[in-house]
Description:
Blueprint: E1 3-13, E2 22-29, E3 32-37, E4 42-48, E5 53-56, E6 58-60, H1 68-71, E7 83-87, H2 103-114, H3 118-124, H4 132-139, E8 146-148, E9 151-152, H5 153-161, H6 163-166, H7 173-189, E10 193-198, H8 217-228, E11 234-239, H9 244-258, E12 262-265, H10 273-288, E13 293-297, E14 302-306, H11 329-337, H12 339-347, E15 369-370, H13 385-392, H14 396-404, H15 406-409, E16 413-418, H16 426-432, E17 437-439, H17 456-467, H18 475-489, E18 506-509, E19 515-516, E20 520-525, E21 529-533, E22 536-537, E23 539-544, E24 547-551, E25 554-555
Parallel strand pairs: 1-4, 1-5, 6-7, 7-8, 9-10, 10-11, 11-12, 12-13, 13-17
Antiparallel strand pairs: 1-2, 2-3, 5-18, 14-16, 15-16, 18-23, 19-22, 20-21, 23-24, 24-25
Helix pairs in contact: 5-7, 7-8, 8-9, 9-10, 13-14, 17-18
Amino acid sequence: MSEHDLVVRGGTVIDGTGAPRRTADVAVSDGVVVEVGAVEGTGRREIDADGALVAPGFVDVHTHYDGQATWEATMQPSSWHGVTTVVFGNCGVGFAPVHDTDHERLVQLMEGVEDIPGTALHEGLAWNWNSLPEYLDALDGAKDMDIAAQVPHAALRLHVMGERGAKGEDATPSDIAEMGRLAAEGVTAGFLGFTTSRTQNHKTSLGEPTPTLTAAREELVGIAEAIGTTGTGVLQLVSDFTDIDGEFAIVRAMTESSGRPISFTLVESPRGYEYHRAILDHIETARADGLTVTGQTAVRPIGVLLGFECTLNPFLANPVYREVAGLPTAERTVALHDPAFRERLLAAAGGKDMQAVGGRLIEKFDIMFALGESPNYEPNPANSMAGIAAREGRLPAEVALDALLENDGTAMLWVPFSNFGQGNLDGTHELLSHPYTVPALSDGGAHVGTICDGSFPTTLLQHWGRDRDGARLDLEFLIQRQARDTARLVGLHDRGVLAPGYRADLNVIDFDRLRVHQPELLYDLPAGGRRVVQRADGYRHTIVAGVETYTEGEATGELPGRLVRGAQRGPTA
């Protein structure tokens, strides 16, 4: 009788292929699944999974751990949510290639686009690299999960074009050739692909547009063609799609010219369902033409967090609030409880703060909601700050103020700005269930003062597989999407499935207990920088390459994760 490194006994296995769940054992040896079924052999360690789900580890293809992965071994908060592989370098932002004189520019870009404090980046980044291969070498250390990187267009443009690239000037043919050469060199060295941004929402911390915003079709196609010569790599972009036909023509041209798969951000538009349906129609046409085009979609509304300890709060533009904005939390909370101060505060004009990323949302009391211990991400619009105020005969700002003063002044409110245009998640259901989308866009590691969506994988299972009051989705389908399908999207065919020959990345989940907690602030970034994190209950065991990394949400201290260099073949490839 054979002995295995690990046997997970008697769990309800959902293997990531979409097949029906079944009761089975999972045997692991040398970091690989070797048997799924009635395992007769013993394990040097055995886990009793009776009554629990056993699923593949989750693959999060849209994160921004570009900096954190250089100074941290733990990719939290993602690793608290069953994620065993993350991919970063999305949206065209990152830290390589880089000239020594351009460190500040790349920090300003990451700070502005992804709300990661510049002070933390300056303190944490060693900058012991210039080229793309050197950056991979800097990432190559023990981690609590596998990590993978993509070539960011903005850094590439700045590196090749200098000030011209930073200001968004057109690239010359020689510029395009050099960017293509470097991108191909990066993919050959182990980057999974190339990413770019074409959205006006992405600005530096100085308010300047991302350098890639107006990059011409010839530039994007030229870089894609160069990557195509390597025979590997994927493409990713984010766009406003204000001109759907024009933008999708660029998407098609990039994948047609390169022969490489492409994916892009796709969320429900406030303009209505017909907007994203038009894009889905384009995807379906491209697929029918043999092009591998995929939408990356969110599992719930993307929204900003407001709080007196966060980057944003409803009183950010209020001149009376500014009198106490710089005080320590305890002193500020006392002032905000003072009746005379409150009267002046509520009488003063507030409004938007257009200088702050997301600042236009701080007065949206009609879609501003409290987040309790068990956050509801599909709230009834009647429970907004404005809805409560109308029922109670109070000012919406007063209701918001009282909500923020809970938990000794550290409470948070939440304002959804996408996927909630109709006041529910029916549009998100349509996007998630489409055959040519995958769940993504968690932005793990980013937006540390305003957004905490690294919990998306837990929300996907909890809300869509169990709790939603409305149309749900089968767990088999959800796990297939968050494990196998996301892995295959970026060329990682060796994971995301519980079957012999696949990597032994898996989760043992107490599904009845599975839930996300309310977000909380930690001050544990370099230079004491703050970040919003979100924990979860229900993950009994998370295992990476056959080694347990988290038990009931607590790190074991084991670090079996490594840098993934390039696309990976599956066991049957």
